[in-house]
């Protein structure tokens, strides 16, 4: 999910980072312990956009530490970029915007800060400004895979599937190791009914990030579409092992039970999905099919 993966969790994620930062007195003492949202390539702080952010990144303690860094280094755009990431993790979007604005003012070619700010605009629902920032990042660095992935997701959510596919494809052609590129291209293939290609992409995403439930759910749905219910069931159950608080995983498991004729178990799993997310429509419609009550 991107900073906000609106389809499921509504929490700061998604579009997140593989590395983390925490103050130990100065920028030279920053230790990688809590994920910082996107990669600044400066010599001061080195972090990169990934799929999830650790909770500590948005903690008051970490934000206070980063504020001390900025006081000591008020002209370092990297410091603002990292604190902006922490504000984003904490859901403090206006403060995050101000920090990314300042990072860009100090370094107008700071393409990672544009991509991070795009995530904030997306979280706020301003997809136009998010697209503008991704475009700005790509004008500065046409090989920045993170921006292609982020912009592609904007396109995908807006129904501009061909443009989304092209952006995910570009990121993959750039040899990205970001699993989101494969996961999301897989979703596009899936929407086109190209399930064999989708399964290949979901499998690659899983190999790059084996502990994320989303690509297992994606691959499982393509297995369902191909009638491979046992493979689908394995994927949905493994997604639940990874995180049993994702409504989609329970609803997908219920779908397999339903298709196998086990109405009682299907009903129970659909009900569990709706306990986690009362607005999750696939679970609601599925429960109606098997005659259950919320």
TrEMBL record:
It comes from the Bacteria. TPR repeats lie at residues 77-110, 111-144, 145-178, 179-212, 213-246, 247-280. The lineage of its organism: Bacteria, Pseudomonadati, Pseudomonadota, Alphaproteobacteria, Hyphomicrobiales. The keyword ATP-binding does not apply. Keywords: Repeat, TPR repeat. This is Tetratricopeptide repeat protein. InterPro entries: TPR-like_helical_dom_sf, TPR_2, TPR_rpt, Ycf3. The keyword Transcription regulation does not apply. It comes from Oricola thermophila.
């Amino acid at each position: 999910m991107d900073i906000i993966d609106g389809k499921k969790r509504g929490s700061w994620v998604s579009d997140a980072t593989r590395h983390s930062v925490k103050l130990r007195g100065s920028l030279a003492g920053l230790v990688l312990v809590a994920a910082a949202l996107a990669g600044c390539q400066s010599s001061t702080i080195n972090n990169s956009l990934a799929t999830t952010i650790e909770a500590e990144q948005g903690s008051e303690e970490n934000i206070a530490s980063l504020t001390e860094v900025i006081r000591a280094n008020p002209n370092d755009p990297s410091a603002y970029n990292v604190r902006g990431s922490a504000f984003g993790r904490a859901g403090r979007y206006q403060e995050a915007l101000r920090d990314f604005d300042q990072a860009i003012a100090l370094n107008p070619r700071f393409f990672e800060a544009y991509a991070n700010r795009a995530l904030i605009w997306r979280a706020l629902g301003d997809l136009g400004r998010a697209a503008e920032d991704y475009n700005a990042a790509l004008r500065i660095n046409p090989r920045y895979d993170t921006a292609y992935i982020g912009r592609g997701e904007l396109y995908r959510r807006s129904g501009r599937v061909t443009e989304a596919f092209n952006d995910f494809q570009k990121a993959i052609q750039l040899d990205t190791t970001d699993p989101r590129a494969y996961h999301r291209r897989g979703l596009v293939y899936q929407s086109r009914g190209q399930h064999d290609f989708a399964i290949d992409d979901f499998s690659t995403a899983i190999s790059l990030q084996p502990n994320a439930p989303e690509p297992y759910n994606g691959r499982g749905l393509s297995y369902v579409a191909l009638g491979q219910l046992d493979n689908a069931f394995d994927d949905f159950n493994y997604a639940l092992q990874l995180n049993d608080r994702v409504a989609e995983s329970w609803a997908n498991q219920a779908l397999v039970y339903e298709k196998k004729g086990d109405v009682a178990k299907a009903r129970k799993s659909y009900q569990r999905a709706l306990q986690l997310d009362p607005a999750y429509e696939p679970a609601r419609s599925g429960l109606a099919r098997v005659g259950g009550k919320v």
